[in-house]
Design goal:
159 residues, alpha+beta, TATA-Binding Protein, 6-stranded antiparallel beta sheet, 29% helix, globular
Length: 159
């Protein structure tokens, strides 16, 4: 019997932009400030069930925005799971991450970070070096599959 493989045609982790965020406010309040001050429309989507190991799962809060001009997904996710464990433990000083499904040019990224730093409730926004972020490839793959499932369910609900 032939084995079939499912291939996802998407960006590799090296082709994404990741920005670390530090904020003392709750996620929903930060998103409200983001939406208001950055003129975006992040919306809460179902939490991600992220398997750190085959037996240990973290539930991660997610917010999604589709950027029409660049045609990219923007995702803000918490660095703390519902069980208060770190999603990316090497960055315990960061509370959230903004993941953009595209590699932004340096000037564009700097402008975005500059705008982000003006958002109320945000104390730090910093560019992350993807090459140094452990297990980002696994997290990114899970995020992509999760988004696909969420959008399938939304489209079925419209039919």
């Amino acid at each position: 019997m032939a084995v079939r493989k499912l291939q996802l045609y998407s960006n590799s982790p090296e082709e994404i932009t990741l920005i670390g965020i530090s904020s003392a406010v709750k996620d929903y309040r930060l998103i409200h400030y983001f939406n208001k001050q950055m003129r975006v429309d992040f919306a809460k989507i179902p939490d991600l069930q992220y398997y750190v190991t085959s037996t240990r799962m973290l539930t991660i809060s997610l917010y999604h925005f589709f950027h029409d001009l660049s045609e990219n997904n923007w995702i803000i996710f918490s660095n703390r799971s519902s069980d208060n464990e770190y999603v990316l433990p090497q960055y315990k000083n960061l509370d959230f991450f903004l993941l953009i499904d595209d590699l932004m040019e340096s000037g564009e990224k700097d402008l975005l970070i500059k705008k982000m730093r003006k958002v109320k409730g945000l104390s730090l926004a910093t560019e992350m070096d993807i090459a140094k972020v452990k297990k980002i490839d696994l997290l990114y793959a899970d995020l992509e599959m999760h988004l696909t499932e969420v959008f399938k369910k939304q489209n079925k609900g419209r039919e």
